[in-house]
Amino acid sequence: MTNFNWHSESEKQWNNRADFWNQQSQRMWDSGSRSTIIPFFSQYVSKGSKVLDAGCGDGYGSYKLSENGYDVIGIDLSTEMIEKANPRQYAGKLSFLQSDLSALPFDNGTFNAVMAINSLEWTERPLVAINELNRVTKNGGIGCIALLGPTAGPRQNSFRRLYNETVICNTMMPWEFKQLVQENGWDILDGKAVYKEGVRNETVDGLPEELKQSLSFMWIFIIKKS
């Protein structure tokens, strides 16, 4: 597809998914696959910190962050997602704007921490987005990045590349992300898996990290700007 425009195609597809996402997001953050993210984040980021939620969707995760004492700005490429997020905002604690993760409209060092949950998988050039997150984070600031693992259903969105079609979901895996950020201005502080229900703790306890990642639905990284 020689005339493929990733930005416009991605915005269109996520606009189309906005209603479905909005129906699912609260459950995911309150009791589902994302329920451990903010408690994990809170172990490394002090309350009152200024946080960017990069790829915020309908804003429920941003809302949860603000309820936990953070000053949050949520951004998303999809105008429909931001429309659904906007009613959640309130002065001084939580706001939203439409923006591309790969071209953030913020000054250098604006944020104490950044959070990007299952959003880097949907960027055209992940390193550009990673460098943008680095740019807007203060020195020594924290990143909480969750990347879909190999067992995640949304990974099917990259399948059509095998027919030489252009897709908006890239194929970056957790172990690739880890190496990429370590080579580009971040240190790895911690990481944890989210597994599908069929994976038992006793099955994965004692396995090396790369094997845990290979079984994961999602891997959550805590990284620090070096």
TrEMBL record:
<dbReference type="GO" id="GO:0008757">
    <property type="term" value="F:S-adenosylmethionine-dependent methyltransferase activity"/>
</dbReference>
<dbReference type="Pfam" id="PF08241">
    <property type="entry name" value="Methyltransf_11"/>
</dbReference>
<feature type="domain" description="Methyltransferase type 11">
    <location>
        <begin position="52"/>
        <end position="142"/>
    </location>
</feature>
<keyword id="KW-0489">Methyltransferase</keyword>
<dbReference type="GO" id="GO:0032259">
    <property type="term" value="P:methylation"/>
</dbReference>
<dbReference type="InterPro" id="IPR013216">
    <property type="entry name" value="Methyltransf_11"/>
</dbReference>
<keyword id="KW-0808">Transferase</keyword>
<keyword id="KW-0949">S-adenosyl-L-methionine</keyword>
<protein>
    <submittedName>
        <fullName>Class I SAM-dependent methyltransferase</fullName>
    </submittedName>
</protein>
<dbReference type="InterPro" id="IPR029063">
    <property type="entry name" value="SAM-dependent_MTases_sf"/>
</dbReference>
